Amino acid sequence: EEVPDLTDVSNFRDLSKPIGALNEQRLEELLDRFNSFDDPTMPPFMYGSHYSTSAGVVCHFLLRLHPFSSLHRHLQSGHFDVADRLFSSVQRTWEMCTGRSAAEVKELTPEFYCNPAFLKNANELKLGTMQDGEVLGDVILPPWAKGSPEKFVEVMRLALESDVCSEMLPDWIDLIFGKKQQGKSAIEANNVFFYLTYYGSVDVASIEDEALRHATELQIAHFGQCPMQLFYRKHAKKRSREISVRSRRQTLSNLYDLNSVTLNDKRSTKEEQEGKETDETSDKQSEIVKQLPFSNAPMSYWVHLGAPPPGPHAPLVSIRLALSDRCLAVDSKGIFHFFRWAWKPEFNDESSDDDDDVGYTSEETSLATDIDIFKDAGCFVAQRELFSFRTIPRLPFSSAARNAIVCVSQTLFANRSLLLVLSDGDGKGALAMQLVDPVKGAIRGEVIVPAAHADRITAMKMDPIGTAAGQGGVGGELVIVGSADGSVSLWRFISSHFWPLRPRLRMMGHAGAAVHAVAISSSLGICASVSSERCCLFDIGNGAMVRNLSPPQKGSNFFENNLIEGDNVVTAFADTPALSFSALGFIIAVCSTKIMRKGELIKEVTTIELFTVEGKHVSSRIIQPYEGVPSNLVSTIDGRAVFVCGGGKVSVLLVSTLQPLKLVDEWKLSTDGETNDASKHVTYDLDFGPTIARPVVAAAACSEGALRLHALQGISKWSQENQRTSVTTAVGNVLALPAQTVKNAIGGVAGFGSKFMGFGKEIGKEAVSAVKEREGGGGGGGFFFRKKR
Predict the structure, then answer these.
(1) What's the chain's Rg over C-alpha atoms?
(2) DSSP 160-186
């Protein structure tokens, strides 16, 4: 059975009605009771139970997870409830909630959209046997899920984020949090519950009878409580698709329309099977699939900055876009490279800067804006910055035998002007910390923590927290460091605090094997480290090991025509720093499978492996030999796709259980074909900027010291907005200097008139000098003042 069509309204529940009002016959009985209810001590109600209770809903659905299984047993005098009353089947629960029973009005918990673990009896709990003889274990899922909790949860999440649900969701918000929660509107919407379930309906502290107060508290605690009413007007509808496309917030998944990529593929396949000619709308939809930000981009959308002669040059192994026009890169020898870029937009006379949909009707806007993703006419202006320095800016230590181990922060430190760079300190376990100015091309501070590990550092990754991650709180970075001694350490850097001199946590688990890849996710609260035989997952809160994963033992499937009796197929995690988390709860790793015949290597296959954080292996994807071993994996911010940096190109793969590791797009950085050695042109790192919320440019660190920049949709509008902002900021800073000088020099208003004239010439010189500095540094000085020639 196929996955339900998420564009068909009939596959969705009517969210404008409470769950108890979906059955017309049950609703009639409830209304009769409501209209005939006559009790002077309490107001009438329609539903005696509640849609959200700790015992009847939360513990019911999350029965198979700790600590909810213990809470359930505590409520049932130390044992589980009767098996027929436990959560055993999705279809059975739906039929009960939409049937004639007045007691079943459950709403779903958030785990239905994000955590498949609650559907599996991984702890092997003895849940009992039902009356029909069925032993309770895992939850029975709909047929289209094919027994996969991960697939079920992903489809549920896609349904929640679909256009159909988005259209109806404000009506559900009105019922739970808004104007239809209480009062006359609640009666009209058939949404009246027992009076004690409403927030603030009774003052428990004012009840003098202790027994009555205790009973009231138990009623509120165990039989549900409505949330506080937040809205008193009808909730606003979600912005339409065409407005969302033009919004300032843009993720990489929006460019590929990954929310509906499954539906698009399904429609295309169906059309191919039927062999029918498509209409105009279908042609546009198929064109959406073909228009890819990298594969179909025009020549003007990218620029390649090669290293100056003579060569050969060391490859760039780490890259970071900083501020609005800067780029910092580090090569394999530990030398810093500084770049400056800008996008020169070209606006047509007929088009307007504020209207991105000129030439399309309102019905065609959503399709047209997606099709014409290359409307940003213009070109890059980029250069390699060559500053004057006494010593070459570089890492404290680098080894000729291997690439530099380095990572650069996304957070700006020291008044949002410097980047934090961490690297191997001395090749013996020390950790080096540096603050680098991407504008001046100078190292502003350097600290080396000796003996951070017992052996050399082999891998490290950063993950922003706070403001740098688009969240609230103080900005900073979480850093995971792996070592050849088999241990990993967790460090935390806060932009407004001093540097740490010791790690927050130390974690083991590789039995002394060298760690060659690490990853960390602050949103998931876990980090991972990989050796040749295992991948260990740790809790970043206390350092406890959550679980460890082994390489999938399916290597023989890759060598069906090459195996003979006596061959040994060995699968291990590849010796590469490529490892990444997906925000959707997946781990992407690289494995190497070899055929060993009498101690000799016969053939080797490299694969990308997709796991869930629960340890389930989802899928594999073979990497062609000409692509080489991936050097890095970069996930999108929403976790729906992963960018694979390898030989000659960057591949974009879908992170999903429906279409796992499906190729979505390719960013080809080499003209070499499959028959040539594309490994000569390797991509080592990738970054998107200038902000996480609005990526409009991609930067790739390549071999031979080359940098590749690629424009994304919306770069012209961003460039124009940034130009206005930079000019305003520069002028404001210049005009603030005289006022600050007066304040510091005079200190108060007393005698201001007599002292002010004495500082006139000094203030003028200071303002002019500041403007001249900005004129050379890219600010607004050159716009208002001209140098004399």
Answers:
(1) 31
(2) HTSHHHHHHHHHHHHHHTSTTSSSHHH
Record the tokens describing residue 715, joined without a space.
């770069």
pLDDT for the residue 272: 36
Pairing of strands 302-305, 707-711: antiparallel
Helices 760-777 and 715-746: crossing angle in degrees, nearest 10, is 160
In angstroms, the CA 14 to CA 27 distance is 15
Helix (H) or strand (E) holding 413: strand 406-413
Nearest Cα neighbor of 723 from 772, 778, 776 is 778
Instruction: Dig out the tokens for 653 from the structure.
Output: 């793969």
Question: Do residues 422 and 432 make contact, with C-beta atoms less than 8 angstroms apart?
Answer: yes
DSSP 334-388: SBEEEEEEEEEE---SSS-SS-S-TT--TTTHHHHHHH-TT---EEEEEEEE---
pLDDT at 309: 84
Which one, of 680, 721, 723, lies nearest residue 702 by Cα?
Answer: 680
As a whole number of angstroms, the distance between CA 130 and CA 113 comes to 28
Cα separation, 124 vs 303, whole angstroms: 57
Tokens 């009231």 belong to 216
Rounded-to-integer distance, Cα 10 and Cα 8, Å: 5
The pTM for the full model equals 0.82
Q: Would you say 165 and 12 are in contact if contact means Cβ atoms under 8 Å apart? A: yes
Compute CA distances 148 → 80, 154, 654, 746, whole Å: 25, 10, 18, 73
Task: List strand residue ranges (DSSP E) for 414-555, in order.
Answer: 418-424, 431-437, 442-449, 457-465, 476-483, 488-494, 505-507, 517-521, 526-530, 535-539, 545-549
How many angstroms separate the CA atoms of 467 and 646, rounded?
31
The number of CA neighbours under 13 Å toward the Cβ of 628 is 21
pLDDT at residue 556, rounded to an integer: 60
Amino acid at 446: E
Closest CA to 151 of 7, 273, 1: 1
Match 């946590």 to its residue by tokens: 505
Reported as type and span, the H/E element at residue 265 is helix 261-274
Residues in Cβ contact with 293 at an 8 Å cutoff, skipping those fewer than 6 apart:
255, 256, 373, 665, 712, 713
Q: Which residues make Cβ contacts (< 8 Å) with residue 132, sequence separation at least 6?
A: none
Largest pairwise CA distance in the chain: 101
Low-confidence ranges of the chain (pLDDT < 70): 240-251, 256-290, 348-371, 467-473, 555-562, 671-680, 724-789
Q: Which residue has the tokens 């009992």?
A: 128
